[in-house]
From TrEMBL, chain A:
Keyword check for Nucleotide-binding: yes
Gene Ontology cellular-component terms listed: plasma membrane
Entry annotated with the keyword Transport: yes
Annotated SUPFAM superfamilies: P-loop containing nucleoside triphosphate hydrolases (SSF52540)
Entry protein name: ABC transporter ATP-binding protein
Organism of provenance: Natrarchaeobius chitinivorans
Gene3D superfamilies: P-loop containing nucleotide triphosphate hydrolases
Source taxon at top rank: Archaea
Swiss-Prot/TrEMBL keywords: ATP-binding, Nucleotide-binding, Transport
InterPro entries membership: AAA+_ATPase, ABC_AA/LPS_Transport, ABC_transporter-like_ATP-bd, P-loop_NTPase
Automatic annotation (TrEMBL), chain B:
Parts of the chain that traverse the membrane: 44-66, 73-92, 98-116, 123-145, 151-170, 182-205, 211-238, 259-277, 297-318, 330-353
Bilayer topology: Multi-pass membrane protein
Species lineage: Archaea, Methanobacteriati, Methanobacteriota, Stenosarchaea group, Halobacteria
Alphabetical keyword list: Cell membrane, Membrane, Transmembrane, Transmembrane helix
Designated name of the protein: Urea ABC transporter permease
Pfam family, one: BPD_transp_2
Coiled coil start-end: none
CDD domains: TM_PBP1_LivM_like
Localization: Cell membrane
MF term (GO), any: branched-chain amino acid transmembrane transporter activity
GO cellular component, one term: plasma membrane
Alphabetized PANTHER family for the sequence: HIGH-AFFINITY BRANCHED-CHAIN AMINO ACID TRANSPORT SYSTEM PERMEASE, SLR1201 PROTEIN
Length: 254, 378
């Protein structure tokens, strides 16, 4: 089992948990991610925003190993993980929630949670750990329900709980609020804020600026496969260039 | 089961030893129960052991010929269970499960013929018959799963490999391995029966003892697999079947796991092949033909891919029916199997046994509900 000891030795806030340099991904003639340099300090909740097709999802998939980069390097905890297989990255603490809902549709809530957790938790503590995760996303009373009986929002939370089941140090969430109502989005924000207490660093691809404002101080903006701007939420929403790339649409929300 | 309820029952019930016995009964079965199998209640196990009891006295009520035929059906059940694991639970559409059976059979035949004089020779042959298909399929699995081959391509590759073995073995009319003549299209005959003479006791298998051996193995394989699918590896299998990508992102090395599952299924298929060849004393390349290769696929589809019970029952009943139809004339059994296969796919896509289970659950829930209403009224 992976130990969390050793990474917690002192408040080295400046230490980057994850970094990428010159990261590039081309699909045929299309350059989805173009020469990206990126740094994510430990303990931060970072939001990644940008117009559709900016390369955000591709960037996350490069970090998980789902895609192999055309060029560039990825470092995680100081190690070069550019060519390591996705399951190796998962085992070293990188957990990923797909944009498309990816719960196991034929199974119950409990079975869904058991699959990720059993790999990281001993058999006798498994039920207890599943209880904790159910509490975290407030699905305790739906434990033995088939997943298909859950609402869309509940399934998204379940999947967040599943990604937490692997005891991640870095959680990558690709649009966790997609298709959610306003109430559900708010609840998701609360859930993500709670993750900080669990000692998890989070990188979220998100569109909803109100959601972003609610959970994070630092925002990275991607545009045309490149990092366009980076700064606090206030800096970003008042950034003229950022307003422009959103085609005149207000990013301040309403 | 509510414990407090039991406690009061025990103190007030003069036959508390009986309820105690039932608790033991439940405790024993609990390890074979879980959300990944059908039949997780007392009724199921009562019926299960009831049938087992009938099977125990079966040799006393039928003649040797009927008994011997029945033994072969049990062997097919073991083969069906092996495909249920590989395809039904793990989602690897393996058209080559019959090839593992044939490989096990040929390996047993060659070794057993050569070591027939040696004490424990046939037992060694059995071990080789289990290990060889496992190794061959581990190698094939390695190339497929580490090469990112999946879905329908696995079915095509495994079928092609099966047909290649068929072609290869038909060309062996002059080939001998030691004393064993592979015999080409005519097949290999004169294969000795399994002799269990490595332990203190020694006996040649008679039709009756062979029946009991195969019955015991079938029950052991079924219970062993029930235990497995409800524990760690069962969840691994289902996760791989449901969503490989997602499962990989949780930290599972699906390439390695699929290769291992594929190989383990082959070992079990090989065991069935060994038992079959020991039973018949004969094997030929039709074992690797297209018709044979599709049989396990049909059993598992008809019975229900996601259930061990369904696959086993379907293998038994379909082989029994095919056998009866075969007595009427050639070809009938294939027409029957073909039509049944199509009907099941059209009307019960997840198999007959899961469909029956759903009916049963719906029926017993409504019965319970109406029962509780009556109790409330009285």
């Amino acid at each position: 089992m992976r130990s969390k000891q050793g990474t917690n030795d002192g408040p080295k806030t400046n230490e980057a948990l994850l970094s990428a340099s010159g990261l590039t991904k081309r699909f045929g003639g299309l350059t989805a991610v173009n020469d990206v340099d990126f740094r994510l300090p430990k303990g931060q909740i970072r939001c990644l925003i940008g117009p559709n097709g900016a390369g955000k999802s591709t960037f996350l998939k490069l970090l998980t190993g789902f895609h192999t980069p055309t060029d560039g390097t990825i470092y995680y905890k100081g190690e070069d993980i550019t060519s390591s297989h996705p399951h190796i990255r998962a085992k070293s603490g990188i957990s990923f929630k797909f944009q498309k809902l990816s719960t196991y549709q034929d199974l119950t809530v409990e079975q869904n949670l058991r699959i990720p957790t059993q790999l990281y938790t001993d058999g006798d503590q498994l039920d207890e750990h599943i209880d904790e995760l159910l509490e975290l996303v407030e699905l305790t009373d739906k434990r033995s329900m088939p997943v298909t009986n859950l609402s869309h929002g509940e399934q998204q939370w379940l999947e967040i709980a599943m990604t937490m089941g692997v005891e991640p140090e870095l959680l990558l969430l690709d649009e966790p609020t997609a298709g959610m109502t306003i109430d559900e989005t708010e609840k998701t924000a609360g859930l993500v804020r709670d993750l900080i207490d669990e000692d998890v660093t989070v990188l979220i691809v998100e569109h909803d600026i109100n959601f972003v404002r609610g959970i994070s101080d630092m925002v990275t903006v991607m545009h045309n496969g490149q990092i366009f701007a980076e700064g606090s939420v206030e800096e970003i929403v008042t950034h003229e260039g950022v307003k422009k790339i959103y085609l005149g649409k207000s990013v301040e929300g309403d | 089961m509510d414990e407090s309820e039991h406690a009061t029952e025990e103190s007030s019930n003069p036959h508390h030893w009986f309820s105690h016995l039932l608790d033991r009964f439940d405790e024993f079965h609990a390890r074979f129960e879980g959300p990944n199998t059908i039949g997780n209640n007392r009724t199921f196990w009562a019926v299960f052991w009831g049938i087992f009891a009938i099977l125990l006295v079966y040799p006393m009520i039928v003649n040797t010929f009927v008994l011997k035929t029945n033994t072969s059906f049990f062997i097919w059940v073991i083969l069906a269970l092996s495909l249920s694991i590989v395809w039904g639970y793990s989602g690897i559409f393996n058209f080559g499960q019959m090839a593992t059976f044939g490989l096990g059979g040929y390996a047993y035949g060659v070794v057993a013929i050569n070591l027939t004089e040696m004490i424990g020779g046939t037992v060694l042959a059995l071990l080789i018959g289990v290990v060889l298909p496992a190794v061959v399929m581990a190698a094939l699995g390695y190339f497929m799963f580490y090469g990112q081959v999946s879905g329908l391509y696995v079915a095509i590759i495994t079928l092609v490999v099966t047909l290649m073995f068929n072609l290869l073995l038909t060309r062996t009319s002059g080939t001998t391995i030691g004393d064993a003549q592979l015999g080409g299209l005519n097949g290999m005959s004169g294969i000795p029966t399994l002799e269990l003479d490595v332990v203190a006791f020694s006996f040649d298998l008679t039709p009756v003892s062979e029946y009991y051996l195969v019955l015991a193995l079938m029950i052991a394989v079924y219970l062993g697999l029930r235990y497995t699918v409800n524990s760690y590896y069962g969840y691994v299998m289902i996760a791989i079947r449901e969503d490989e990508r997602r499962t990989q992102m949780f930290g599972y090395d699906i390439r390695k796991l699929k290769t291992a599952l594929f190989s383990a299924g082959a070992a079990l298929g090989g065991l069935a092949g060994v038992l079959y060849v020991s039973w018949s004393g004969f094997i030929d390349p039709t074992m690797f033909g297209l018709v044979s290769a599709s049989l396990p696929i049909i059993w598992v589809t008809v019975g229900g891919r996601g259930t061990l019970l369904g696959s086993g029952i379907a293998a038994y009943l379909l082989q029994y029916t095919s056998n009866e139809l075969g007595a009427m004339g050639t070809g009938y059994s294939f027409i029957f199997l073909g039509i049944l296969f199509i009907l099941v796919i059209l009307f019960f896509p997840s198999g007959i046994v899961p469909a029956l289970r759903d009916r049963w659950v719906a029926w017993s829930t409504t019965r319970k509900q109406s029962g509780s209403v009556q109790e409330g009224n009285s």
